[in-house]
Automatic annotation (TrEMBL):
Organism: Vibrio ezurae NBRC 102218
The gene coding this protein: nrfB
Residue ranges of every copy of the Cytochrome c-type protein NrfB-like domain listed in the record: 84-184
GO molecular function, one term: heme binding
Domain of life (superkingdom): Bacteria
Transmembrane segments: none
Name of the molecule in the record: Cytochrome c-type protein NrfB
Matches recorded under InterPro entries: Cyt_c_NrfB, Cytochrom_c_NrfB-like_dom, Multihaem_cyt_sf
One GO location term (cellular component): periplasmic space
Pfam families registered for this protein in UniProt: Cytochrom_c_NrfB-like (PF22678)
Amino acid sequence: MGNIKLTIATMLKALIALCLFGYSINALANDGVQNHSATSERFKVEFTRDKDYKCTQCHKDSKHTLAESHGQNVIDKVGKEVNCTDCHSNIGPDHRDGASTVVKYSDAQSRAGTDKHQLPPELILEANAACTDCHTPERLREANWTHDVHAKNLTCSNCHTVHGTDAKVLSHDHKAIVGMCVDCHSDFNHKAKE
């Protein structure tokens, strides 16, 4: 019985010594820590709910384009800012399937205000009658319309298949896409040779 009491006493002393050692190490570690006041901005976290977050992971410049092309006009009309899903809400689960075949295109390449000679909007609207039933002519006539390709005598159906089964610009044949694009976008010629 004496050995048990001695063993318990030794273990108790070792446990107390270990606790004191741990406390002293903790106290030494805390001495070197700088005390940040409650006003410190270093650890401030802001939570933002961005409805367009998923969109802008691939369409990185779309936030700027959306603000520029819609901006204050839409806010004045609907009384709030718009986001991608206000108009593009029917995105399916296979939306990204063709992502690897997409060639980057900057809307600045077709922006009005360059030295292009534009066709009269009436001729374009006549050729695009099937499109303008939903896409209003007033919107298409605006000077900063992103798809302003009228100088090349193009209509919507040159690039967009009107309710067809295969979309011309979303084809899975990479060379066919590039071939169609480089007719106007000569800066993509290096892609056509791949």
